[in-house]
Design goal:
With 349 residues, the protein is α+β, with helices and mostly antiparallel strands. It is 35% helix and 13% strand. The strands form 4 sheets. Strands 3-4-5-6-11 form a 5-stranded antiparallel beta sheet. It has a 4-stranded antiparallel beta sheet with strand order 7-8-9-10, with no helix packed on it. A two-stranded antiparallel sheet has the order 1-2. Helix 2 runs parallel beside helix 5. The longest helix is centred in the N-terminal third of the chain and has 31 residues.
């Protein structure tokens, strides 16, 4: 008894399943319309390039406070130019596919999941044929205009890198200065040593956050206030002096066991204030980096590799806690460049 399967004529595909006759596109039969479509598509890609250039110029020229019909002029210009460029590129690519690329009806037989070597070779050949039929190589106007638009698409990305924030070198300084009082970050009240108990942690800010000028307006406001708070936020803790092991040169940075550290984790910049009184460890809630505040804020667990920046403290004439200086260490996440800058700073010290 034979196991071979005899393929009969009924197993062959239907030659004419009743589909309507293939309709050729106007661009397939009329060279003039083909050229017209090519110019239209190239025009879309060229217009997209112009809009991307306008986006880059608008980013620097239009002030963020200007308005247009009640909207932010900057947002309107950036959104309309970038959105328009993306729309034109998308429509251009669709029109290219619909009007100029190869338009053939194909029949594909069903086959096992594992394709044979011949099938794979045929697919590669079909891909190469598709590339050839698309006219990418023989339509330089469309090709070059598309490549120009795609290349210009990188300009907004480069321009908007400025919105990611200051460079690592720009994070070296904060608003802390010699003689500035440390105040409670909720009430804004200056802090005296008697206000802290052993084992206590207090979230604090520089006093300038709450100061007002001669006109009665806050010294810092708006974006400048937010930027100052993001880099100047600190925590103060009080430990028994015998539990503190200061490194060389930091023997007088505290006041009777009171130490001050940046609230910004040196891993990726999360605010940090989870305090373990018994172990003197400070934990970051984002990625569990752990710092030993009794040992100069050194990391003992987690992804952070740089100690938590410490600020030296003193008392003013009225007995309030003040900063001796700004942080001698760089405040912020430990980007590679930031780590190299910190190493250079440590070598100078």
């Amino acid at each position: 008894m034979s196991n071979e399967v005899d393929l009969t004529a009924s197993d062959e595909p239907i030659k004419d399943p009743g589909l309507p006759e293939h309709q050729y596109r106007p661009t397939d039969t009329d060279p003039a319309q083909e050229k017209r479509a090519e110019r239209q598509i190239s025009g879309m890609f060229g217009a997209a390039t112009v809009l991307l250039l306008v986006f880059s110029v608008s980013y620097f020229v239009i002030d963020s406070d200007q308005t247009f019909l009640g909207w932010s002029a900057s947002n309107f210009a950036l959104g309309s130019t970038l959105g328009g460029a993306m729309l034109l590129m998308g429509v251009g690519i669709i029109q290219w596919a619909k009007k100029l690329m190869g338009d053939h009806e194909m029949i594909e037989m069903r086959h096992p999941a594992a394709s044979s070597a011949e099938d794979r070779a045929e697919v590669l050949q079909d891909l190469n044929d598709g590339i050839s039929e698309s006219g990418f190589g023989r339509r330089p106007m469309i090709r070059n205009s598309l490549l120009g638009a795609v290349g210009a698409l990188g300009l907004p990305a480069i321009v908007m890198l400025a919105d990611l924030g200051p460079t690592p070198k720009g994070q070296r300084n904060t608003v802390w200065a010699k003689g500035m009082r440390v105040v409670n970050d909720v009430s804004g009240i200056p802090i005296k040593p008697a206000d802290l108990q052993v084992g206590q942690l207090v979230n604090a800010q520089p006093a300038i956050m709450y100061e007002k000028g001669a006109d009665g307006e806050p010294v810092l406001h708006g974006t400048s206030l937010l930027q100052a708070k993001s880099k100047g936020a600190v925590i103060m803790v009080r430990m028994r002096p015998e539990d503190i092991t200061p490194s060389k040169g930091r023997e007088n940075w505290g006041i009777d066991g009171i130490l001050c550290f940046s609230k910004i984790c040196t891993h990726v910049g999360c605010p940090i204030s989870l305090w373990e009184q018994q172990t003197h460890h400070l934990l970051c809630p984002c990625h569990q980096s752990t710092f030993d505040l009794g040992n100069n804020g050194k990391p003992i667990f987690g992804p952070a590799h740089r100690p938590l920046p410490q600020m030296p403290l003193a008392l003013d004439a009225e007995g309030y806690i003040i900063a001796v200086s700004d942080f001698p260490e760089i405040v912020g996440p430990s980007y590679p460049q930031l780590a190299r800058d910190q190493k250079k700073l440590d070598n100078k010290v």
